[in-house]
Amino acid sequence: MSATRMPPPQPAQRVGAAPKKNEPQTPDDGPDFRTQVHAWLESHRASLVDSLRRLGKQPIGSFFTCLVMAVALSLPMGLALLLDNVERLGGSWQRAAQISVFLHIDASDAQGQAMREEIASMSDVAEAEWISREQALTEFQQQTGLGEALKELPENPLPGVVLVTPKEIDKATLEALRQQLSELPRVQQAQLDMLWVERLTAILKLGERFVFGLTLLLVLALLLVIGNTIRLHIENRRTEIEVIKLVGGTDSYVRRPFLYMGALYGFGAGLLAWGLLAYGLDWLNSAVVRLSGLYGSDFALGGVPVSDGLSLLLGAVLLGYIGAWLAVARHLSELAPR
Asked: What number of H helices and E strands is found in the chain?
């Protein structure tokens, strides 16, 4: 009797179960873009809130850190604002570099007025003023006190003159303009006090260079202050940071709270510096107004323009951010778990 051949064993199938389908295996694409953006925003929000909370726990220390930064920020900005106000003292600086265009002695008032209009239409001229022979003689008598002596002269010896105010104070430009004016018809001489122009330009450039150098020094000081402050915060949280890196925290995750902290220090310092400048200029303005009133002038110091204040605030935030970045970048390699 031959043995019966048994079929190979088949996998068990649950009674009533639907037959299996060969479904394609799709790879896991991970979270979508919206989820990633939400997680990124939530991480930044948590870092910002944590930085604010830590600064709030030390209000006195945080205030004095911001105050030191504010003093360093307000010094160069205050000097720059004072320099701008000095340029307006007694009129514009361009008036100190006027070119006197003397006409021939026989030039009439009508010719002088026509000459003034022609000069005023030039591109390098900001303003032109005609002074007639009679007006020049009257002003000369008042300024010199020689009125009785001048009355003995048979005729007025002073020519008519056009006072030209240039748009720019530049030695080469002014000399070219003076040469152009001297070649006009009916012009006897075009005179410019180049020595005064050079002195004026040197004074302005000296003030600008001083403000620029002081700004660089104080910016370096601000970076050192914010860097040292952030370094202390890093040392206080060293154990916490080492644990975060031990469980897989990235450098950007570790760096983010300190960057927010540096930006917050800069924001507070910028607001304090803006307030100090506004109060300081207002306090100084009362004395300036009294002094200018004694000289018959209505000169007064201008306040802090909104654009300059916003620039100061933005610069302070950027300095705080950069200082924090440098401090964290320097110590990040030392924060590896032990």
From this structure: 10, 4
